[in-house]
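hey can u check if this looks right to u? its 307 residues, i copy pasted from the old doc so theres a chance i mangled smth
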Amino acid sequence: MRTEQGVLRMSIAATVAVAAFGIVFGLLSGSFSIVFDGIYALADAGMTVLALWVSVLIVRSVQGAPKGRFARRFTMGFWHLEPMVLGLNGVLLIAVSIYAFINAIASILNGGRELEFGLAIVYACVTLVACFGMAVYGWRANRSLRSDFVALDVKAWLMSGSITVALLIAFLIGYAVQGTAHDWIAPYVDPAVLALVCLVIIPMPVGTVRQAMADVLLLAPSDLQEMVDRIGVETVARHGFLSHRSYVARVGRARQIELYFIVPRGMAAKRIEDWDAIRDEVGEAVGGDIDNRWLTIAFTADPEWAE
């Protein structure tokens, strides 16, 4: 629980176990909703592996560890890969859910399917404990890590747990109506609950995809822009500059900030150390996680260099 990579590795192992368990029990019980649950978990595990790889690259690049040809091709770091992975993860989960929803509707129109409810109930109970257990594990770890990858992983476990709760309720209902006057409902239980679950979970990754797209497109967060502009105005007033220009973006866990200060023509010369002292002053005011901050501060008498 001490590192982002450790939490993601644990999640990957648990996800693969749950996915394999689901696919086997789904085939044995004849439940497409359980098979979908397993495939959903397997897809999530694949994306978590990709997230882990990106996380390792980012941490190593911050620590100056990457060497060789690969690192030379990414001289500006690996932060931009993070929103790409998050966006791809969200899109993939949405696509899998839409596909399952279409199959569920087709099954209902074809008269449903027979299901071994006893095995299905056992699966749902075991998986429910695993899903919410991993969600709590990830949530506790992320209180200190504050990782977008871990946060998305926790959301995925909660989504899987919610799916399992719905499946368990439906399986219990189907088990209860067997041999009664409502026995005709039983074949429709599995595809109906699958359709309902898909309708619920399809919108859930939308927020993550939207934020990932904003990061990929380098949209300037309003709060970051306002803070940097405030610091720029204060610095201009304090040092007698003419104005400033600022450019900011959030890229995954990183903040990219460029500040240009327009100085008066003919301003008295300063030593390099003096300009660096101003940079240190601005950097301290900006604050934040300096390991995941790309801060450029420049001074010029020609405004065109800052445009």
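The chain has a mean pLDDT of 84.
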